[in-house]
Amino acid sequence: MTDFSLPFIIEHPNKRDFVLAKCYEEKQECYKLTIPAGKQLEKAIYIKFKPTTNDLNLNLIIELGKGSSATIIEDWCAEVKSPTIRFGQQIKCHANSNLKYVVLNCSSQETKMTEKRSSDVASDAKCHVYTYHFGSKKLDSRLTQTAYGKGAEINTDIIAKSSADQDLSFNCEHDYAEKMGSGEIGMKGIAQGKAILSFDGLVNIRKTGSGSTGYLKQETLNLSPDTTVMAMPGLKIDTNDVKAGHSAAVRNLSDEDLYYFGARGIEKEMAKKLLITGFLGKELKKIEAHKTAYESIKKLI
Amino acid sequence: MLLKTDMIDPTVKSEAGTKSEKGIFARLNRDTLDHSDPSDYMEKFKKGISPQLVAHISKDKEEPEWMLHQRMKAYENFTRIPLPNWGPNLEALNFDEICFFAKAADKKGGYESWDKVPAYIKNTFDRLGIPEAEKKVLAGVGAQYESEVIYHSLENELKEQGVLFLDMDLALQKHHDLVQKYFMKCVPATDHKFSALHGAVWSGGTFLYVPSGVKVKKPLQAYFRMNAMNMGQFEHTLIIVEEGAEAHYIEGCSAPKYGSNALHAGCVEVFVSKGAKFRYSSVENWSKDTYNLNTKRAIIEEGGTMEWVGGNMGSGVTMLYPCSILKGRNARADHLGIAFANAGQIQDTGARVLHLGENTGSKITMKSISKGGGHSIYRSDIRIAKTAKNAISQIECDALILDPISVSDTFPNIKVDNNSATVSHEARVGRLNEEDIFYLTSRGIEKAQAEAMIVNGFISPIVRELPLEYAVEMNRLIELEMENSIG
């Protein structure tokens, strides 16, 4: 399929269903994965990263042709040894295409990672990005989805667990540039130990985005007295024919919930585990169909 | 008229316990607010700010040396601190075009009777309904015209209980030690450019001291009026509510429209002691020439309660975020606000709450309306310190955008440093519900009137917290905005 070496492993039963090429964007080396127009991939494409260089700087472009559909799983759960990772990604979903993009990050807690992801979604196309972040010592994640075609649907789910002295910072924006766009940002996390967890979200509906519906939901469980949790849910609405809203909540496990389990003979620590699993479990269910990814994340939760 | 004042929510309760058949502010109209008096006295006052002006203000007020020193230090800060690099663009605000100090009448501490106030000034306050409100619902009134207070009164009964309610300039002379102890301790002149400017050129304002255990049942009011073109008003409000005391203070303000910049950079400092309760209500209706860059902050001690109720209708640009510092355990703050951004207006309002004490609680409820290309912004900053165990904060903000050319933004910021805190935030943005409009129009109500009724319903949870007469005023101002009739 390729005549060049890759800094990642691609797994798919039929590698002729897509095209992988080396490219240059803004003078930077990149890799481009294209799903041809009309192609419907039933099985997910796995992209497994196992970088070993000291300073990994990588750009990945994903393009879905008109009417195509695919599920892509980007897996950083192998033994990632690079102490510094800079990752850039651009997704282009052409009209009527449908992409599910799953990011699994359980890289070493020594890794410092900066990622900048963007997606442009055309008319009646759908792009749903799920990111599960459990790794990295320090993470600066920026994700922007733009609904630039009429009726485009953009969804983002960010699930994170920041433990010990991890410092995870997420910035996610949904930009509705055309009519009748829709979507939701969900940011859900757990902070414990001496961790820092920051969720910064923005729903931006432009003047040209009338008829759009955009929501943002942030929810953080704050389990330790030494954590720092930040929530910045923003709305920027430039026209009136919209439905937009956001909510944010920062809390600990409630005494009532713990009491409920206690009264049924379940010890406090076990009750906590069950409640945490329940808190993130709903998000895990969203990728239940993709067994490998599902099992990896389940183990981490 | 889209609305009659009798369409006010009948459930609105008067804290003062009186209900006048004809509202005090029912006569408010565009002429009342836009009216300007002759301002020949302005010939004596120069525009622009300089150390000489700062020294002149201090000398004119016969202030003690420490205040002059504090003013000069604040002036230095003002020259050093840049304009904020966030929020609305303030580049068009030309400090050289603003008159920072002007006196329309020379009567230190203000007159004690409306009869003695110069007729043209009294007529302005008559039109605004202030003397009438004083007779009917208020325990005391202060009225400021340009840079100085021209009238001040307080019921004898409260004087006998030790309540002090007087012009800030006079308070500095008469209650020097008390003023020195608290003045700009809550809002330091190093905070930002406009607190520094305020510290340098402040003039007039209100001093309120409520002794321990005294409960002032009727509200006290101060009204601030800018009359001349390119005027700047920098009144300082210092409020001390001692242990177990209670009071309610209402602030109103307005200015005529000239088509040229005016500036309001007042400062409000409130100290709420142990177990005390204080409510600060304001109805701001500066002209759309005005930059309203006001700073309001309260420090609340153990078991104290602070309530901010505000309506921002006027001003071209507003940047106003009342702040509560919940210092003592079980301290509580409630912030309720309405902002109406009409054509050419930017209403950047919100709240700041800093939870320091254990079991502290805050609730923020904000409503905004954008119309005719107006831009409303809700901005808040909630911080829960490590020491604020079991703190609870709840934030709700709703925005209505009445047409496709108007804008609404929401930028909350939450930072939590301990795990026993619970913080929740919710915001919704949308337009008037077509089904609601249909429901009303199908019952014979005109569309414009139906829209105004829905808007009034939208803001009623906040308006109902005002005494009836002021709820009427607030609704009347909204009504005028819905008609597009305020300058």
Describe this structure in words.
- Chain A is globular.
- Chain A has one domain.
- The longest helix of chain A has 18 residues.
- Chain A contains three helices and 18 strands.
- In chain A, a hairpin with a 2-residue loop joins β2 and β3.
- By secondary structure, chain A is mainly beta.
- With 487 residues, chain B is α/β, with parallel strands linked by helices.
- Chain B has one domain.
- In chain B, strands 3, 4, 6, 7, 9, 10, 12, 13, 15, 16, 18, 20 and 22 form a 13-stranded mixed β-sheet that branches.
- In chain B, a hairpin with a 2-residue loop joins β1 and β2.
- In chain B, α10 packs across α11 and α11 runs antiparallel to α12.
- The longest helix of chain B has 17 residues.
- The N terminus of chain B is likely disordered.
- Classes of the chains: A mainly beta (301), B alpha/beta (487).
- β17 of chain A pairs antiparallel with β22 of chain B, so a sheet runs across the interface.
Average residue pLDDT of chain B: 88
Instruction: Give the overall pLDDT of chain A as a whole number.
Output: 90
Question: What is the β-strand count of chain B?
Answer: 23
> What portion of the residues of chain A fall into strands of 2 or more residues?
over 45%
Largest contact between chains: A-B, 32 and 34 residues
Low-confidence stretches of chain B: 1-21
What is the tally of helical segments of chain B? 12
Structural class estimated from helices and strands of chain A: mainly beta
Strand fraction of chain B equals 25-35%
Total beta-strand segments of chain A: 18
